[in-house]
């Protein structure tokens, strides 16, 4: 059985976005696990650990691990301090948003989370143009949710 950990990469450095790639995130997470839990923790977490989904534009990352090691993984995530790409280091941290048993529950959570973020932005709009753009985005969240509900029920890739 598996757990999926949904995180967002938070950085004040705008250049950090360009180095958000599977390999960089995977290495940063493994490094943090090794520092916090040592070789034993790293070995436990490495079985079945993978960066399942990544969106560099939004900074959203979905990590997969075994159910019995997700606590080790989650407890190490606050110790991720940077991402490294092409010998450049970009300070950042991983904000854990949700832990789920399937990819689908994480998707549903993300849709709700994005909708709440957009509604908060909507309240702080300064002009009509901004307001229209954000309302359009909120509506697209509703459309995405309906499409995902009518889709197939396959949550996992079935490999162990």
Automatic annotation (TrEMBL):
One of its GO terms (biological process) is rRNA processing. Gene3D superfamilies: Ribonuclease P, Pop5 subunit (3.30.70.3250). GO terms for molecular function: ribonuclease P RNA binding. Keywords: Nucleus, rRNA processing, tRNA processing. Coiled coil: none annotated. It holds the Pfam family RNase_P_Rpp14. One of its GO terms (cellular component) is multimeric ribonuclease P complex. It is found in: Nucleus, Nucleolus. Component of nuclear RNase P and RNase MRP ribonucleoproteins. RNase P consists of a catalytic RNA moiety and 10 different protein chains; POP1, POP4, POP5, POP7, RPP14, RPP21, RPP25, RPP30, RPP38 and RPP40. Within the RNase P complex, POP1, POP7 and RPP25 form the 'finger' subcomplex, POP5, RPP14, RPP40 and homodimeric RPP30 form the 'palm' subcomplex, and RPP21, POP4 and RPP38 form the 'wrist' subcomplex. All subunits of the RNase P complex interact with the catalytic RNA. Several subunits of RNase P are also part of the RNase MRP complex. Belongs to the eukaryotic/archaeal RNase P protein component 2 family. Component of ribonuclease P, a protein complex that generates mature tRNA molecules by cleaving their 5'-ends. Also a component of the MRP ribonuclease complex, which cleaves pre-rRNA sequences. This is Ribonuclease P/MRP protein subunit POP5.
